[in-house]
Structure prediction request, 277 residues.
Amino acid sequence: MNTVITPLPSLTVRIALFEYECCRTPPAVGETITGTLHAHPTGADRSPVRVTGWDRDRDLVTVDGGVARWDPSDGNPLDQPIVIWLSWHSDGVPGVEATATIARVRQIYLGTAQDPASGETLHQVERVQKFPEPLLTAAGPFDPGGAVVTLTDLILVEPAPQQITDYRAAQDVARRTVHITAPPAYFGPVVPGRGDRITVDLDDPAAQIHNRPTEAGRLVAGVTRQVSEAVPARSVGPAGIIVYRRGPANTPSADITNDMYIALVLDEPTVRPPGRA
Prediction:
């Protein structure tokens, strides 16, 4: 069950430029806005918020004004300045869902005469332009870089425990999934089917391997998640194009002339999960 929390009266967040250039209306004063809150490390001059608590079990941080998701790979949020970002592109990450009223909007412009990449200027507006022009200043043009928005009347909904559990499980499977392209014989005397258990040699030079975990050994076992034959598409498009079609399961490997592509989920004992902070 999701938890609805009652935060303090206001919260300042940042919104990246691509968020509203892509597919949303730019933020404007007085309008209602929805999105997902995520906390990230920031510079001391980039709208930092004060962290008052860290829920390691749920990857959430409490700040003055609310709560947001924290990626544990970013370290300890209590030891560094952080900023809250509101996003419409969470990519399945279970963040904190927010609904609020926009009380203040400031357009970010990046650049200084000394170092265009370091400084920023905040220009108060009623509505951010979708494709704003550079801000012309005595120091030169400053490029637009998103918005700083103050939110009020917040309703925040924390992710349900099952959402977090499912997301972590999916992350673990992705971490243990290696993508292997190799001659059919590499995978055994017959082509395996989807869901079959196989053992392979990750050090065999005949195989092209992607996403190999650094802690994985040479001989590893796992379950196939995708089995495809990599067929050169000589009749369509330029040379070098490969078309992947379902692998002919249980066919003798010697009868297959093309390479095979297999996504293999390695067994847990094979790949030790990294420790959590």
About this structure: The chain has two helices and 17 strands. The first strand starts at residue 3 and ends at 5.
